[in-house]
Amino acid sequence: MRRADRLFRIVQVLRAGRLLTARDLARKLEVSERTVYRDVRDLQLSGMPILGEAGVGYTLRRDVDLPPLMFNANELAALVLGARLVKAWGGDEAVAGAADALRKIEAVLPPEMRQQIDSVMMYAPGFRMQKHVRTLIDRIHEACVTQRIIQFDYCREDGERSYNRRTRPLALYFWGGAWTAATWCELRNDFRLFRLDRMENFALLDEHFTLKKGQRLEDYLRQVDPPKKKQ
What is the pLDDT, as a whole number, of residue 137? Predict the structure, then answer.
């Protein structure tokens, strides 16, 4: 990535208003933390109102009014395709959010670019998406964010059933036709993936859980994709 593009991206990421550490920015930009420190310092020296400091985090001053973003044809096509994918395979709340976002984007586009939205010939048919799965996506995502235990009956691919499975949901994954929930299963005392379309009698409980070392999403990801050893 060119340095100019990297500096632009730092500003756009900080526009969201969240306090981000140099590590957060380095991960998003796929560069070293040292590079982030240098870039942020240069932006500050150039007059960009970035607040914060090394070791604490950075954000853009909230009273700054930056001009709205414009998109090129490839970026616009990606946004339209993404919204269509969400509409076809997302939960009800995400579907509504994607539609609202596209309307807001379309409202600020110049007329010639608005016409390009209808000329994106990439589609994502969602006729196989079951209504109850859309509902489960929203409820399990809520459980992930609020760290609440979920309970359900489950039917495996071989037909074996289990009842009243209590799990701590960590994240949702879409596999091009099927959604799964990555969880910490209290019955197996280990990580387990469950397909949403095989869940029955789902309940979002009022019981909250605490993320413990060895049971977190990052622990699961290290288990399924361990870091490669340096040669």
Answer: 97
